[in-house]
């Protein structure tokens, strides 16, 4: 389903998730220390902030996905070549997949005490950051080089 603009909720969720993902990624080292302490049998009294933020990212991503599926999203710029439109579509799908898989893997690592899940969690989190950087750079290219107003769609609702 396509619509002319993103809703206020979609925009707010996009930027909230983006900020939370960066914050969670920056807290990785502290979480790794807590995980290692837990695996060594040392008690960790409370669930670390990294984990709370990750679970919040998961919940907000599921809401974003539900909104995307029920409300729809604006179409890609009409003058983008089909290959670019397909790349954008698959990039968005991959981002959503990673935004679900990373917190799920982190939960398996933490609650199940599965060290390998923690390693995979960290690796795919780094992959998400690279993809998100590419996503942001392409949005800036659209806005400032191509000048098609693409970024504006995610800045204010119509």
UniProtKB/TrEMBL annotation:
The chain crosses the membrane at residues 12-28, 48-67, 94-112, 124-145. GO terms for biological process: respiratory electron transport chain. Residues 6-156 form the Cytochrome b561 bacterial/Ni-hydrogenase domain. InterPro entries: Cyt_b561_bac/Ni-Hgenase (IPR011577), Cytochrome_b561_oxidase (IPR052168), Di-haem_cyt_TM (IPR016174). GO terms for molecular function: electron transfer activity; heme binding; metal ion binding. Pfam families: Ni_hydr_CYTB. This is Cytochrome B561. It is a multi-pass membrane protein. GO terms for cellular component: plasma membrane. Belongs to the cytochrome b561 family. Its cofactor is heme b. It is found in: Cell membrane. Keywords: Cell membrane, Electron transport, Heme, Iron, Membrane, Metal-binding, Transmembrane, Transmembrane helix, Transport.
């Amino acid at each position: 389903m396509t619509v002319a603009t993103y809703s206020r909720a979609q925009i707010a969720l996009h930027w909230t998730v983006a900020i939370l993902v960066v914050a969670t990624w920056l807290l990785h080292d502290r979480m790794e220390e807590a995980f290692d302490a837990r695996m060594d049998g040392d008690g960790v009294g409370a669930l670390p902030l990294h984990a709370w933020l990750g679970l919040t990212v998961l919940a907000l991503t599921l809401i974003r996905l539900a909104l995307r599926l029920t409300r729809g999203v604006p179409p890609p710029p009409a003058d983008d070549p089909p290959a670019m439109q397909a790349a954008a579509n698959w990039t968005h799908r991959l981002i959503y997949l990673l935004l679900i898989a990373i917190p799920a893997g982190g939960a398996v690592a933490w609650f199940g005490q599965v060290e390998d899940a923690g390693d995979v969690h960290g690796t795919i989190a780094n992959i998400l950051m690279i993809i998100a950087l590419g996503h942001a750079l392409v949005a800036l290219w659209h806005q400032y080089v191509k000048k098609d107003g693409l970024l504006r769609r995610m800045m204010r609702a119509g």
